[in-house]
Specification:
Layout: E1 2-7, E2 10-13, E3 18-26, E4 33-39, E5 46-52, E6 57-59, E7 67-72, E8 77-82, E9 91-98, E10 110-111, E11 115-120
Parallel strand pairs: 2-11
Antiparallel strand pairs: 1-3, 3-8, 4-5, 4-9, 5-6, 7-8, 9-10, 9-11
Length: 121
């Protein structure tokens, strides 16, 4: 079993930056892939960025060049550095993990509870 806990959300003005963190605990040696998703009410959960344990990363077109996903294996922590934030980035952001390479398919076995990011214009 793996537990995920996101932190770092909050309110920020457009053009600003924010860093989200996701602390993994439990059987973390079973995790090979992690990702950040986001969701706004009434819409489907959307993959934002994903990373494999060996380092390969992937980004949604809407965040390429602005967001960076990274991992600190020693701290069992996943990060999402978000720069040049836009109002349309406003959403609940979720951390996900699995041993399967789902990438942007929201079928990960483990999910955090989410952290709200609000970007004001």
């Amino acid at each position: 079993e793996v537990q995920l806990a996101e932190s770092g959300g909050g309110s920020v003005q457009a053009g600003g930056s924010q860093r989200l963190s996701c602390l993994a605990s439990g059987s973390t040696d079973t995790i090979y892939y992690m990702a950040w998703f986001r969701q706004v009410p009434g819409k489907e959960r959307e993959g934002v960025a994903a990373i494999a344990i060996y380092g390969r990363t992937a980004y949604a077109d809407s965040v390429k060049g602005r967001f960076t996903i990274s991992q600190d294996k020693a701290k069992n922590t996943l990060y999402l550095q978000m720069n040049s934030l836009k109002p349309e980035d406003t959403a609940m952001y979720y951390c996900a993990a699995d041993r399967i390479d789902w990438w942007f398919v929201p079928k990960y076995q483990y999910w955090g509870r989410g952290t709200q990011v609000t970007v004001s214009s």
